[in-house]
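A further point concerns the way the authors explain their paired sequence and structure data. Since the whole study asks how a given chain folds, the encoding of that fold should be made plain. A single example would do more here than another paragraph of explanation. An entry of this sort, consisting of the sequence and the corresponding C-alpha cells, reads as follows:

_____
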Amino acid sequence: MRQTLKRIIAESPDLDLVGLARDGEDAVAKARELRPDVVSMDINMPKLDGVTALQLILQEKICPVVMVSSLTQQGTATTFECLELGAFDFVGKPDGTVSSNMGLIANELIAKLKAAASRGIVDRLRRNRERRKPYQAPMPATFESVTRKRAVVIGISTGGPATLQEVLPQIPADVPASIFLVQHMPPAFIASFAKRLDDHCALKVVEGRSGMPVEPSTCYVAPGGMHLCLHRKMTGEVVIRTPTTPATLFVPSVGVMMASVLSVYGSDTIGVLMTGIGDDGADAMVAIRQAGGHTIAESEQTAVVYGMPREAIERGGACVIAPSHKVAGEILRAVRRTTE
C-alpha cells in the first residue's frame, strides 16, 4: 500500500513525497521530523493505530491528515470517528484493506491532499471542532400551523461529515419541511453515514430510496452512486427517484438534486451549500434564488474548503452567507419566513 500511494503521489507535479512511514509510531515520528504540509495515513496500522496517530499529529498542530479507509463495517465506523476528531477527509480503498485498484481513487486522493495542504486548514478544523457542541434536545418548536410544503436542499463535500454534525442536530424533530442532502462520499459509506446522523439528530434521517414517499420532518440522504431526485405523481404525492443519469463529475450531484427539488417545490425551496471542492451546486443556487427561493452559503470563516460555497456566492447565488454554526438558525428562519 505504501508503494501504491507513493506512485500515485509521484505522478502529481504539484506534490512532493518527503517521507514514508511503516507504522503509526513511525508516522508520528516522521511528521514531527519532516513537518509536511499534509499526511496521508491508513486507519489500520501496526504498533499505533491511525486514530491515535491522527490525534497526536493534530494535537501538535503539525499538519492536516487525509485518512485512507477500508470499506468494512468497522472501517466505516472508525473513519467517521477520525472525521469527528478532526481528520481533513478520507478516501476509501476500492478493494478493502490491501487494495490493488487504488488507481480508481487516485484523482480523488490527489485533489484532497492538495486541498488539505492549503494554509490555515489545521487552525480552522480546530476552531470548528472546539465550537461543536454535544447533542442536546432542541427547544420546543415555535412553527405556525400551515399547509404549505417546503424543502431544504443541502449540498456538501470535503469536510462535510463533521460539519453536518454541527448543523443537523440543531434542527427540531417537527420542522415543517423535508430536507434533502447530498454528501459526496464513497457509496459504501452512505448507509452508515445516514444511520450515524439519525442517531445524533432529533430529526429523522434516512437513506433515500426510489419510490419512498417524501414526508416533512425527515432528512433524505442521497444514496451512493445515484442521484437524489423527486417526482410528483398525478395524485400530488411526491416520491424519491434515484437515477444514475445524467453523467456528472460527482454522483450523486448537488446540482442535479437542487434542480429536481426546485422543479417540484419552486419558491418554497431553501438551498444550502457548504464546504467542498469544486462548484457542484453553485449554478443551482443561482436558479433557486432567481425562482424566489432562499439560499444560504457557508462563509469562508468556517468552510474547511471554500470552493463550492465561494462559487455560489461569486455567481450571485447566496441570499445569506453564514458560518457553519449559524447555518441551522438560518435554515429555521427561512422555514419560518415561508410560513408567513
The first strand starts at residue 39 and ends at 42. Residues 2-130 form a domain with the Rossmann fold fold (CATH 3.40.50.2300). Confidence is low (pLDDT under 50) at residues 134-140. DSSP finds twelve helices and twelve strands in the chain.
